[in-house]
Amino acid sequence: MNITIENVSMKFKENKALDNVSFEIGEGIFGLLGENGAGKTTLMRILITLLEPTEGSVTICGQKLCAANREEIKKLIGYLPQELGLYPSLTVRETLDYLGGLCGLKNRERKERIDMLLDQTHMLEHQNKKNRQLSGGMKRRVGLMQAMLTDPKVLIVDEPTTGLDPEERIRIRNLLSDFSRDRIVLFSTHVVEDLSATCFKLGVLKRGKVIYQGTLAVLTAIYVIAGGYMATAVNDFIQGIIMLFGIVTVIVAVIRNKGGFMAAYEGLARITDPAVTETPGIFASFFGPDPLNLLFVVILTSLGTWGLPQMVQKFYAIKNEESIKKGTIISTLFALVVAGGCYFLGGFGRLFSDRIDIAANGYDSVIPTMLQNLGPVLIALVVILVLSASMSTLSSLVIASSSTLTIDFLKETFLKKLDDKKQLLLIRILVVVFIAISAILALIQYKSSITFIAQLMGISWGALAGAFLAPFLYALYWKKTTKAACWTCFIFGSGLMLVEMAAPGLLPAIMRNPINCGAIAMLAGLVLVPVVSLVTPKPDQKLVEETFACYNKETMVKQSTALGK
Q1: CB 215 within 8 A of CB 61
Q2: 405: which DSSP letter?
Q3: Can you tell me the distance from the alpha carbon of 418 to that of 17, in angstroms, rounded to the nearest whole number?
Q4: What are phi and psi of 190, to 5 degrees?
Q5: Are 157 and 292 in a shared domain?
Q6: How far apart are CA 401 and CA 61, in angstroms?
Q7: What secondary structure does DSSP assign to 402-418, as a single string?
């Protein structure tokens, strides 16, 4: 079941509303994104047979769009227009009953469908209200019900969330998500947030032309390729704000679900697990039943971020020295809220252990279980949090990896005559390659036996930060750091994590865990680099002095900045 749009064009006198548009739309929600006037409504009117395209062809669920098939195609489609006219003096139920009769539904079937839709849309208590008494959000829900009344295979909705408050927009998106199972939903909007929360695939129209068709992962690639470091930094900032408010809201909601902080704390104190410890009340303590392993988690998630190569790109967004001070304060507060929030959520996860089969579903099932009783608004907020974190990490990683590989390796080794224009093109090509690799790894992980995402984080962060952290820090602040020490750290960090993956039995018991092993790889590098640097040939003194000469460069500043001794 799909919709195939091939080379469709639509002209109104001299104005070309659609220009050679082609889409392939399958089951689920397909997002149609574009500014006002991009051609979204025109395309939808063609699909519902109100307009006939000037050029091209359309096939809907195997039926070719033409005059002979028009009535059959209409039976397949439900449509919510951007502007919906409702008879003001009819009640909600009367409206649906009248429209259902026009669609040819028999009395009994019509009543059953109306009752079900009123229940699904939470409109049962408003069914006897007249349409003129309804809020904007309620009217949109009535519009959705009339579009779904015949249980169509294809649902087309034009700007369904325009002008609605955030809660009502989320309710509409949830209705569309529920309805899209085994059906096609075409969701037109100019609000990116609506698509990020509901759609896996989307198409983008601009001035009647298709400028993009694909998944959100590829859309991430587009803004990285087009905007570079600055776009990534701005995007990270916006997504960070979402995460900041989101995690606080989720924590409050989860704790309230357990009767408040003190009630949840007392509940933790009463939990016992002989398989973990015999100590009473240990799960309510700050360090928990396993402080050593908790320490390794803290080391991995704190030191690890310093050593990840994607952090390098943050330097390109720095305006001046003053912005570094502000950034330090803001990022520290952000880290305290997010890390502290994650710590508390993890701790209170024990309160939900009676609902989870850890052996079957893994530790990643804890958080979804904690959140399952939240309202639709908070669930949508969690989805946005996950998308924000995913897109931020992916964009930062791929742009750092592609630029480093191009500038520091390929240009220095094989392509020494590479000009700036070709260098930029190569970086963009590598961005696409790295995102494709990320998608493949995600699919492999999804189908593999590794169910705990922290295991993957321990391996990847351990290898990356174990290799880069110590050379990065020592090379910044210590002039005696040697090339041999850096190579030793690279080989040790990567090699240790390879052994942990391939033959963990060769390692001590405490290191037979990706998180612990990753943390130890980082700490070992901080020892290896200075020790190896002391016994290996020193770097060229002239090169070192030239490298650090920037610190001695004199700069004119205001008296208030440099008050003197």
Answers
A1: no
A2: I
A3: 42
A4: -115, 10
A5: no
A6: 43
A7: HHHIIIIIIHHHT-TT-
Q: Indicate yes or no: pTM above 0.85.
A: no
For tokens 């096609």, name the residue: 184
Contact 156, 79 (CB under 8 A): yes
CA-closest candidate to residue 96, choices 161, 169, 147, 151: 147
Please answer whether residues 146 and 104 qualify as being in contact, where contact means their C-beta atoms are separated by less than 8 angstroms: no
**Could you tell me if residue 381 is inside a domain?**
no
Alpha helix positions (H), 149-215 = 166-179, 192-198
Residues 220 and 201 placed together within one structural domain of the fold = no
pLDDT interval class at 451 (50, 70, 90): very low
Say if residue 408 is in the same domain as residue 260.
yes
Determine, yes or no, domain membership for 441.
no
The pLDDT tens digits of the residues spanning 62-91 come to: 888 888 888 888 888 888 887 788 888 899
Domain range for 477 is 452-565
pLDDT at 85: 83
> d(Cα 320, Cα 61) in Å, to the nearest integer?
58
| 288 and 203 in a common domain | no
109 shares its domain with 55: yes
312 pLDDT tier (thresholds 50, 70, 90): low
Which of 372, 373, 336 has the alpha carbon at shortest distance from 244?
336
pLDDT tens track for 178-237: 888 788 888 887 766 666 666 767 788 888 888 777 766 555 555 555 555 555 566 667
Give me the residues paired with residue 204 across strands. 33, 212
Name the domain boundary from 207, 228, 248: 207
Residue 513 lies in a domain: yes
Query: Considering 433, 460, 480, which residue would you say is the last residue of a domain?
Result: 433
pLDDT at 179: 82
DSSP 91: B
